[in-house]
Amino acid sequence: MAGYACIDFETTGLFPTRHDRVLEVGVVLLDGDGAVEAEWSTLVNPGRDVGPTHIHGVTAREVLRAPTFAEVAPLLLQSLGGRTVVAHNAPFDVRFLRAELARAGYSWTGPDIPALCTMELSGRHLRSSSRKLNDCCLAAQVVAAGSHEALADARAVAALLAYLMSATYKPPPWSALSSEAERYAWPVCEVTIPAFVGRTGSAPVREEFWLDRIVSSMPRSSDARVDSYLEILEMALLDRYLSAHEEEALVETATDLGLDRDRLDGIHRDYLLSMSAVAWEDGIITRAELKDLEAVARLLGLNADDVAMSLDAAKAAASRPVATAFQLAPGDLICLTGQMTHPREAVEALLAERGLQVGGLTKRTRLLVAADPDSQSGKAAKARNYGVPIVAESGLLGLLLGMAESQQTQS
């Protein structure tokens, strides 16, 4: 195996197709066994404003003498050639890589860049619900020195990958992807070494808000594309504001990941549901917490009714209205009957996001959800005859959160 190229980009923003640019490059090269062979980094002159300095710590003055991406590209391509590209939330870095190479005049046809994502691998092999690089490193008991600094983050990715290699069998489960990466046809160019320009300081340490702590405790999605989207969404929500430009770019990013608008609606409702569950763990929702939940809901295109539904679910899960031995699983068929407290389409969107099916009452039905579980209606009588459990809407919402807890425990 030729080895790995662990990369990290600091950028002016989150959306390469919307004129955001790479601001800093960090590269750590590993051999096939995970040992460090070389590393390098440099600031990059983006040819535009540097974006949120309060997050990445890079100022406009620092990049004035830095090389452009076009000047860095030959060395970067040499570093990547024959190796497996590795990044935390690889789809994000790969989109920037391809966009920047295209701007620099490199174009090629063929398959997408094969890349290994430590965020996705951590969800499979680590006992950590958080997608964050630092949290994954803590779970793996490896050092993650720095945040929003390209070389520090690339080093953290390399250390995390080395741990994951030791925690899996040989050859590693991603060996097929590595074989594809070794054969990948990168653009050919003459290698030149740019004049590296380093930082004059460190990225600022951002104050942690209560919502940051909640995000770190939320369950991972079983779909790596959803985790990739949510990681970008969480970065976009740092300032609790989404411009129209950012909203459009998020939809575009989701489309690139294969997530359509209907799926996004379910993802956003499910995200709010998980946030509310973690917020309710202490049995109290303060006025400030409720205000922040409502603000995030608005940014996600949701409303106060969605917040109320998510909090009802959190309370129901905490009170365990249904025997804990009963668990829903993706693919289960759910029948909804009667008038519901919350909008039916919102409940159905949550069910779909959990991988549950909505349909009529049959012997295959896993659960009947009724306004009154003691109802003597024909459908309820039929469910009892089939041995199908009947629960109220609150019970269903509690079971949805129970699914997330169960999936996280199993992972």
Helical content (DSSP H or I, runs of 4+): 40-55%
What's the CATH class label of the largest domain? Alpha Beta
Examine the secondary-structure arrangement and name the CATH architecture of the largest domain.
2-Layer Sandwich
Q: What name is given to the CATH topology of the largest domain?
A: Nucleotidyltransferase, domain 5
Name given to the CATH homologous superfamily of the largest domain? Ribonuclease H-like superfamily/Ribonuclease H
As residue ranges, the low-confidence spans are: 407-411
Q: Give the distance, in angstroms, between the N- and C-terminal Cα atoms.
A: 28 Å
Organism: Nocardioides caricicola
Protein name: Exonuclease domain-containing protein
Keywords: Exonuclease, Hydrolase, Nuclease
GO molecular function, one term: exonuclease activity
Explain how this protein is built.
- With 411 residues, the protein is of the alpha/beta class.
- The protein folds into three domains: 4-182, Nucleotidyltransferase, domain 5 (2-Layer Sandwich); 210-319, no CATH class; 333-394, BRCT domain (Rossmann fold, 3-Layer(aba) Sandwich).
- It contains 17 helices and nine strands.
- The chain has helices at residues 53-56, 60-63, 69-80, 90-103, 118-125, 133-140, 150-167, 175-182, 210-217, 224-236, 244-256, 261-279, 287-299, 304-319, 344-353, 378-386, 393-410, and strands spanning 4-11, 22-30, 36-43, 84-87, 115-117, 333-337, 357-358, 365-370, 390-391.
- Strands 3-2-1-4-5 form a five-stranded mixed beta sheet, with helices on both faces. Strands 7-6-8-9 form a four-stranded parallel beta sheet.
- Helix 15 links the parallel strand 6 (333-337) and strand 7 (357-358).
- The protein is elongated and about 80 Å long.
- The two termini are 28 Å apart.
- Residues 407-411 have low confidence and may be disordered.
- Keywords: Exonuclease, Hydrolase, Nuclease.
- GO terms for molecular function: exonuclease activity.
